[in-house]
Amino acid sequence: MKKIVIAFDGTNYSSGAMAFAVGLNKLSPILLAGSFLPQIYLSSSWSYAVGGAGLYNPLLEDFNAEAIAEHVRRFEKTCNSEGIEWRVHQYPYDLAIPEIRKETRFADLLLVGGETFYRHYGMERPNEYLRMALQEAECPVMVVPEEFPFPDRTVLAYDGSEDSVYAIRQFALLFPELSKMPATLVHAASKDHSGLPEKDYILELVSRHYPDLTVKTLESTTKKQLGESLKGHPSSLLVCGAFGRTDISMMFRRSFAAGAIIDHQFPIFIAHRS
């Protein structure tokens, strides 16, 4: 049984993240820990917020304890009706990112709604707090939109990097049931790699975990071509390496992973080694 943490912030409740947890539990029973994070008072928030760049300070009155309590009841009701073993973790302080780091240290997966997570904070997309959660999580993260069909196909983003291989392997180890779905290993050609990097090695690994595998090489790293390659497959799940780290390619950092989150198209699994 896997332990999955689902993060809700302030008064925002992600129905999409909850629906995904329900779908996972149907495949294999999980322990679902609902982490109900408070509204953030940024002036006392963790200094990692880069001096509050691009963010504003919400009033403490924005905090709505009654709404959070209702979301806790909603979470418990859904878990009980779906037969999900659950726990509730609540935090009275506004240090959201350190609490996420602690939660993920003791979890197999962090599940978060990409459209709802601290959606009022910052103009960038993904916003500062969602990007920090992706970077600081000590376990893999699944970011989901609010409306989507449960996946029946995986897209494995491979750029030849260690992180992309790590994510592909971690997804297979965490979700062997989902790894049995049709999978496409997507690689973008570049000046350095016209073919599949380390072809024999990656195929030896991936074909062991993804029995229904297709390999696809794109001639361009543009977001447009990536989007076109996924047309006709609305029930896809994307698997990517590190998010926002200096050692990941421009394609997957800005066009692939971030683009998928911004457009709220598919669930996206992100993992990094440290």
TrEMBL record:
Recorded hits in SUPFAM superfamilies, A to Z, give: Adenine nucleotide alpha hydrolases-like (SSF52402)
Q: Which domain of life is it from?
A: Bacteria
The name of this protein is Universal stress protein
